[in-house]
Specification:
Largest sheet of chain A: none
Structural class of chain A: mainly alpha
Strand content of chain B: under 5%
Family (chain B): Belongs to the ATPase C chain family.
Membrane topology (chain B): Multi-pass membrane protein
Distance between the termini of chain B: 12 Å
Oligomer: heterodimer
CATH architecture of chain B: Up-down Bundle
Largest interface: A-B, 16 and 12 residues
Order of helices and strands of chain A: HHHHHHH
Number of helices of chain A: 7
Helix content of chain B: over 70%
Structural class of chain B: mainly alpha
GO molecular function (chain B): lipid binding; proton-transporting ATP synthase activity, rotational mechanism
Largest sheet of chain B: none
Subcellular location (chain B): Cell inner membrane
GO cellular component, one term (chain B): proton-transporting two-sector ATPase complex, proton-transporting domain
Shape of chain B: elongated
Radius of gyration of chain B: 17 Å
Number of domains of chain B: 1
Helix content of chain A: 55-70%
Strand content of chain A: under 5%
């Protein structure tokens, strides 16, 4: 049965590719068009308060998280339902990560890190739905997330340790002559953290989606062989599902690493 | 002429992503080599693996960003 469905779908793809082949060959879509921010209710001008497709997909992500975590665990069954077990899995996964990477006393930051992970992973997965919009592919979105992480961790460090937090930059295990040079490098690497957090997430997601659209654009150039790119697209799509999860994981685990620095700044 | 040079620069920056791929492969290969020697310790080190991959990959993504800027912003 499953095989039959697969072959029928394959035949449909091939036949429709042959039937609807465009007259003039050429790249049909520009790979970067999918990232255009548009006002939801018309109007060309986008101000900071205008509801755009970014706003819409962010709220959809929040709604999806609400459905999974709040409604999914509302029954609190001894034998968990499917939604409840997914919610519990996610909770346990992040809790263990915070405890392992940042230490036991970092657990009071767990709600923030859980929120961060769930938002990024949901936004990434929603962006993989065809015709949807990927909010995390924008440097503005990931930049705000990264700057909040950076500010929160710096403030935490100074509140907990005061001026001793600056010891993070003073590598006391190194020879005295090297310490100023190392301090300079440490300061630079400290301030590059939010930049790299922001660019890693947005760059990965944007690059992956652009690759998918480049292959989709080949369909217009191949004439009646326009069904061929769907195989490449399927393969890349599977990779993108993996990347969507791994990048959310990497963002949160690096947050945990930085948090550990703020809680225990001794070098 | 300046636009053409920007395209050449974008191509050169694109090489950086490939070189970052070498770095990521290096991290994964060494992890696997270590994990096969001591499989019982491997599971506890996957977080380190991902952090290492993320750091190696970040620089490749930086050069990808430079390529994008040269293509679309310059």
């Amino acid at each position: 049965m499953g095989k039959l469905v697969f072959y029928v779908a394959l035949a449909l793809v091939v036949v429709s590719g042959v039937l609807f082949a465009p007259e003039h060959a050429g790249l049909a879509i520009h790979p970067m068009d999918q990232f255009t921010v548009e006002a939801l209710f018309g109007g060309a001008h986008v101000a900071w308060y205008t509801p755009t497709n970014v706003t819409l997909w962010m709220f959809l992500a929040i709604g999806a998280i609400f459905v999974l975590l709040v409604l999914g665990s509302a029954n609190r069954g001894i034998v968990p339902s499917r939604a409840q077990s997914v919610a519990e899995l996610a909770y346990g996964f992040i809790y263990k990560m915070v405890e392992d990477v940042a230490g036991k006393d970092a657990v009071k930051f767990f709600p923030y890190i859980m929120t961060l992970f769930m938002f990024i992973v949901t936004a990434n997965f929603l962006g993989l739905i065809p015709m949807s919009f990927t909010t995390t592919s924008h440097f503005a979105v990931t930049g705000v997330l990264a700057v909040i992480v950076f500010v929160a961790i710096t403030v935490t460090g100074f509140v907990l340790h005061g001026a001793k937090f600056l010891g993070l930059f003073w590598v006391s295990s190194a020879p005295l002559a090297l310490r100023p040079v190392l301090a300079l490098i440490e300061v630079i690497s400290y301030f590059v953290r939010p930049v790299s957090l922001c660019i890693r997430l947005a760059g990965n997601i944007m690059a992956g989606h652009a690759v998918l659209k480049v292959f989709a654009g080949f369909a217009g150039a191949l004439g009646f062989a326009s069904f061929l790119p769907i195989f490449a697209i399927s393969a890349f799509y599977a990779l993108e599902v993996l990347v969507a999860f791994i990048q959310a994981y990497v963002f949160t685990i690096l947050t945990c690493v930085y948090l550990k620095d703020a809680l225990h700044p001794s070098h | 002429m300046e636009g053409d040079l920007a395209y050449i620069g974008a191509g050169l920056a694109g090489m950086g992503t490939g070189i970052a791929a070498l770095g990521v492969g290096n991290v994964a290969a060494n992890f696997l080599a270590g994990a096969l020697r001591n499989p019982s310790a491997a599971a506890s080190q996957t977080a380190t693996l991902f952090i290492g991959i993320a750091f190696a990959e970040a620089l490749g993504i930086f050069s990808f960003l430079v390529a994008l800027l040269l293509m679309f912003a310059v």
